[in-house]
Amino acid sequence: METKFRESIKQAVHNPNLTGALGRFSEAYRISRQKAYEGYDFEALRTRIAERKSHAASHLDELADLFTKNAETRGTKVFRTNDPAKVREYILNLARENGVKSVVKSKSMASEEIHLNKHLELAGIEVGETDLGEWIIQLAGQTPSHMVMPAIHMTKEEVATVFNEQVEKGQNPDIPKLVKFARGKMRAKFLNAEMGITGANIAVAETGTLVIVTNEGNARLVTTLPPIHVAIVGLEKLMEKFDDVVPVLTALPKSATGQLLTSYVSMISGSVPNTDGTEKQLHIILMDNRRTEMSQDPKFKQAMQCIRCASCLNVCPVFRLVGGHVFGKVYTGGIGTILTAWFDALKASDDIQSLCIQCGNCTEVCPGKIDIPGLILELRRRLAVEKGQPLLQKAIFSVVNNRRLFHSMLRAASLMQKPLQKDGFIRHLPFFLSEMTEFRSVPAIAETPLRDALKKIQQPACKEKIAFYAGCLIDFAYPEMGEALVKILNKAGIEVIFPEGQTCCGAPARYSGAYEVAAQNANDNIEALLTDNVTYVVSACPTCTVALKHEFISTFESLGQTNALPRARELADKVIDFSSLVKKLVDEGRLKFKEGQQLGKITYHDSCHLKRTLHVSQQPRDLLTRAGYEVAEMYEADMCCGMGGSYSLKLPEISAPILERKLTNIKNSGALIAVMDCPGCVMQIRGGLDHHKSTIKVEHTVQRLADELG
Length: 710
Ligand code: SF4
Fold this sequence. Notes:
Elements (H helix, E strand, L loop, with lengths): L2 H11 L2 H21 L5 H17 L1 H14 L3 E5 L2 H14 L4 E4 L3 H5 L2 H7 L3 E4 L2 H9 L15 H11 L8 H18 L2 E4 L3 E3 L4 E6 L3 H7 L3 E7 L3 E2 L5 H13 L6 E5 L12 E7 L3 H5 L15 H4 L4 H4 L10 H11 L17 H5 L6 H16 L3 H10 L2 H14 L4 E2 L2 E2 L15 E2 L6 H4 L10 E6 L1 H6 L2 H13 L2 E4 L9 H5 L3 H15 L7 E3 L2 H18 L5 H10 E3 H10 L12 E6 L2 H6 L4 H10 L1 E3 L15 H4 L1 H18 L3 E4 L2 H13 L5 E4 H6 L4
Parallel strand pairs: 1-10, 2-3, 2-4, 4-7, 5-8, 7-10, 14-15, 14-16, 16-17, 18-19, 18-20, 20-21
Antiparallel strand pairs: 5-6, 6-9, 11-12, 12-13
Bound molecules: iron/sulfur cluster (SF4).
């Protein structure tokens, strides 16, 4: 990771204006988005959008031809190119041929993508952005920090300073007055410009229509007042039918800003007369810039389903801390990372891909149904193939891949850590490891790992057997969680088998792009877990559960190792998470809670993988309630705690503030016990609270339930 990149993260995280504005917006956004979608079937809506956009991506060539034919029939000139340089050249030539000295633009990410403003300005043409946010950042000499709200990172005071320095002195930080001032300045620009440049939200092939959505109405003036209108349209905006506009326009304002409707929707089908009666020149540039290639890539084709609503940015716990500028490119956030890798270069996404914490918030809200974290993992895999794995990482994974060596090293570390640990925590680590304990304590490695402790537990002889996949944290840091699980399942008449050959689930390797290592881990675990005749393979770690249930399969698929798939699927069918299993056993009457207990208030934190990949969130709450606890919901219970596996080690400057927010929400819930289903979250949150010297207890659900089931 480049030092410059790390520096930019630190600066962003310590910029109170930025984090304040983004934090407030993201909190308000969640509420307004939810309200805007009330009465709508979001799943059905986004399925329709995804289907129609995917259909368009499969027929790009045909649709581009059809759009061209229909638009040209209506007097439009259509130019199609793969090359951003040719787009710039086309516009510059057009401007020169027509003596254009002044251009007005409405917001267009496609024009940002090709750095059009700079190109025109170098040729002596004045370019005026007319979207207020775009104008502000143009004056400030910045790039947009957000796809929909380009100047969201700036306060009214900063905007007033920019206006004072760049336009006219005497502006105060009063929002209505600043808007009025901007409007006055822009009106003159609209009237004087000889060319208007826009993007488009949709290009309808069957009619040759451009659909442009704005909140400020500026696109209407840009497209009508100047005698020349140029629209730069990325090929992903093509849709086949006029009917396809409906679901996109239904979702776009709700997902973008939580509005029911956007203020202005312009539909332009062919050129129209100017106010003086002459014919307006309408030029539409269909810009490819590797979009066709993207649409032919089996993994990345789904990125063509993006409607550029920026919802994924609005809900991202990392984006709301660092904003858009750390991405260093035009497109920001998770989807921006993917677009940068394609429209710029794969290596341009090298540092920024590491910002994704894989919480899955974005996928849950994406109206294009895009698996953004999954695509970022694929970028990591391709980057690892292209540039090779770093030496240190290679060394670590070679140890992890050797189960006996890995486990012997953990046992040795448990002895060596003795001088550093107290009460089960290591609170200060020396040298280059010190960053790990700057914002949280870390757990000491257990004296006796679960695999050894279980050998001493006398289990009743039972007909039914379930295999337990512990994962590294429960096995070596929190064996008491595994012991609690055995206790519960024994009560249900189930014997717990601990297959000795189990090893790391491969998530650290997979999340680093080292798929070959992850595949080796997958093979070892499949071998170990499918040997006994068990009803289920249960795990009390959601990250491991997701690996066993989904990621072994997708890793083999990505590597083309199809012969490994049948066994991976056989395992996946048997895998279940702890809470779902216990809920099932309770519902079947095989486990019963003690009667009439009133155990007091607790709060529950949703682990990202459990809630968003495994879709389990109500089950643990039901179990805890039936046990006799009062579940006091914390604010943003399903927001990431900042752990993200090795993320908290790689990017502590981001992990720490995300954790702080979670700790505040836990404290504000008023509960004295915080419960969760993930040992990784326990490690992060318990360590954070210990760092704060808080007395709030943090436990895995399995521990809270072990004594309450009769
Ligand atoms: S990826 Fe999804 S959520 Fe993000 S901008 Fe595109 S459509 Fe919107």
